[in-house]
Amino acid sequence: MKSDLLKAMEGVKSVAIAGHTRPDGDCIGSVMGLYNYIKDNLKDVEADAYLEAVPGCFDFIPSISDVKHFLPHDKEYDLFVLMDTSDEKRTGVAGELIKTAKELFIVDHHISNSMDVNLGTIEPSSSSTCEVLFGLLPEEKISLNTAVCLFTGIVTDTGCFHHSNTGRETMEIAGKLLDKGVENDVIIDRVFYEMTFTQNKLLGECLKEAKLLDEGLYIYSVASKNLLLRYDAKASDLESVVNQLRVTKGAEVAVFFTEIGEETYKISLRSNGRIDVNAVASLYGGGGHILASGCTVKGIPEKIMEEMTVLFNKQLETCEK
Length: 321
Ligand code: 5GP
Ligand code: MN
Known about the structure:
CATH topology of the largest domain: inorganic pyrophosphatase (n-terminal core)
Helix content: 25-40%
Radius of gyration: 20 Å
Number of domains: 2
Order of helices and strands: HEHEEHEEHHHHHEEHHEEHEEH
Number of helices: 12
Strand content: 15-25%
Number of strands: 11
Bound molecules: guanosine-5'-monophosphate, manganese (II) ion
Shape: globular
CATH class of the largest domain: Alpha Beta
Strand order of the largest sheet: 6-7-8-9-11-10
Largest sheet: 6 strands, mixed
CATH architecture of the largest domain: Alpha-Beta Complex
């Protein structure tokens, strides 16, 4: 049986594929997974992939150099496939496509969404958008190039098969992708372990400045604009920090602030299981998943932490009752 995505692609001449702002491995993997699938199987369809700046660790993704960073003025696509978000605030450069494309199809796995979820396939129980996408494509038509993209997304969003979103299905799909010839060791090293010297130094700086609150239940750290300037680094160079904060013994939640504008912070939240950080991020206009979410907030980190810890404590009180 044809999936809804395959049906949506029937008869179309042009497809634009895009993901969310600050693209991560799942966003890039799903955008490029479908892009490669179309290139390999649907020769009559003209596909364009749009992404914001792609972090260097993803340079092994097949055809990544085809990615476009700006929308053309005069182009109207038959179909726009939006990957890894159904929140219109996060569509970034691709937002315009929602208005100009003739049809929209969303592939996503986030539980928080502001757009019409009937416009695609959104499976919050899936580990990743790449896992959802795998289910929408005929397995026998998935090439090694597409498999590399999908594996990258699954590895990214499961924290290398470690997060609780990793199910039997996730492992089985990963196995099928290995059968296609994916080199799991190479991808996992590139996506997870490899860090530039600068990224390692920044991690050290941020860990050195970390603070505990409420007797160690919460841990947070702040990266100022100055820090990034000093190292000539980008916010994406700090991605590993929140995960390292989270493994602090005793911590329920880790919060990491990156200053991206005048007193404006991109906040990453990670929970160790008892606290739903999506509920908290949502109150600040953000979202994500129960154990990993984010938001962008104007304010002072210490004050925001004061507010957030009240919200976290309320959740802990409720689950203790
Ligand atoms: P990160 O902290 O790694 O940026 O994001 C963690 C998770 O939360 C990811 O799944 C990401 O897509 C989601 N997320 C991060 N920031 C936002 C935001 O501002 N809004 C929403 N809806 N989701 C976010
Ligand atoms: Mn994702």
